[in-house]
Write a structure and sequence with these properties.
Radius of gyration: 17 Å
Number of helices: 2
Number of domains: 1
Structural class: alpha+beta
Mean pLDDT: 85
Largest sheet: 3 strands, antiparallel
Shape: elongated
Helix content: 40-55%
Oligomer: single chain
């Protein structure tokens, strides 16, 4: 199904934006939230330096409330290594820009 994002009329294929994650509750589907201005999904595609928050994604698989909370915590924990890598990379990028600006 193709739908429009809520920012700028960009077309995004929802099937391409659903992710699978293996958890202790089995394989679950999740995606970046499509609500907000701009939405987390829009930011994940269009912002070069966007760092997600735990509230920026939603679990699509039907689970009990407790299982859903555990799955969200597990998915969020699995993301931390990559998020920290990009935060360090962004800091290095900012430091390089500052150094180049000070040299001129």
């Amino acid at each position: 199904m193709i739908t429009y994002s809520n920012t700028g009329g960009e077309i995004m294929n929802k099937k391409l934006t659903i992710f699978n994650e293996d958890t202790k509750h089995g394989t679950v589907e999740w995606r970046w939230k499509t609500t907000g201005e701009p939405s987390a999904m829009y930011k994940s595609f269009n912002h070069q330096w966007w760092f997600p928050k735990k509230t920026d994604f939603e679990v699509l698989t039907r689970l009990s409330t407790e299982a859903r909370k555990e799955v969200r915590d597990e998915i969020w924990g699995n993301m931390q290594e990559e998020i920290e890598y990009f935060k360090r990379f962004y800091k290095m990028h900012k430091d390089n820009k500052k150094r180049v600006k000070n040299e001129t």
